[in-house]
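hey so i finally got around to running both of the ones u sent me last week. sorry it took forever, my laptop kept dying halfway thru and i had to restart like 3 times lol. anyway pasting them below in the order u listed, first the sequence line then the structure token line for each. didnt double check formatting much so if smth looks off just lmk and ill redo it

first one:
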Amino acid sequence: MLFSLEQLFTAVNPFVKRANHLVGSVVLQAGYFIVNYILAFLVVMWLNGIDNNRIGLFNVIAIPYWLKVIIGIICIDFVNYWEHRVTMFGDYSGGCIGCVTVIR
């Protein structure tokens, strides 16, 4: 959205050929913002429900809070590592294009 505003105010001829593109960009970015806000709200509500109902391994065993934080960070890092390993056929410098790069 900020890029669109920058283009609007700094362009020499802001409305000659860019008006349709600018309106489309603002509408799409607003849509992305609304969808992401709704999804984030649903995730927070889901996690609050899990916490209130005492579901999950961290609610079953009694360990200190600092250890829960460290284990949680390690688990997130582990999942993120394997997500990147699975979705990429090779690295960025190897010449083999992964499926994530193809989508872009």
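and the second one:
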Amino acid sequence: MPGSQPVHILGNDAGHCVILRTDCRDPTEAGSEPARSARPRTLHRQRITLVRQTMTPHPAGERVQILLAEDNGADVVLIREALKGLKRGHDLVVVQDGEKAIDLIERIDQQELAPCPSLLLLDLNLPRRSGTEVLQRLRQSPKCGGIPVIVLTSSEAPRDRESAKQLRADCYFRKPSDLTEFMKIREVVEALLDSLFPKTE
């Protein structure tokens, strides 16, 4: 499809990012709202409430923490550069393998005052422990189990996408070879953060 957009509503496979959850807005369509039934809207409100209850609050203007689990150094550089364009302040924490990501989640669970990250960017093909294992462990976390997750992968296998969906990933971002398209990961991150921490006047 010419002029493909970076984010598409569930069911549309064009572009590089496929929405796996109905509570994620398409940032490429200004003012648009995904079609939702009353039940998804209710689940969306319940999920936001759960996330806000289990995460450290982010008052207006306060920085958010983004956890990136990625072993490819070049991709880390590109993602770091893309996120410089975020409208809100943020800190990017990088772990290079799945075991370190799981260790971090477990340390947060064990420390009462340790804050959860606001968002996880997760490569599926991690060394030592796979991205799928990390996502499974995250969803079992009593503190951080509800945080939004963007899966980063070069895989187009339907099996991988279905696995991510079953583990409640929010978006499935296929890493494009084109630099401009890759940098659009910022729009996806912005949309998810805005859905959880809307700005107040």
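quick thing i noticed on the 2nd:
The chain has one domain: 7-196.
anyway thats it, ttyl
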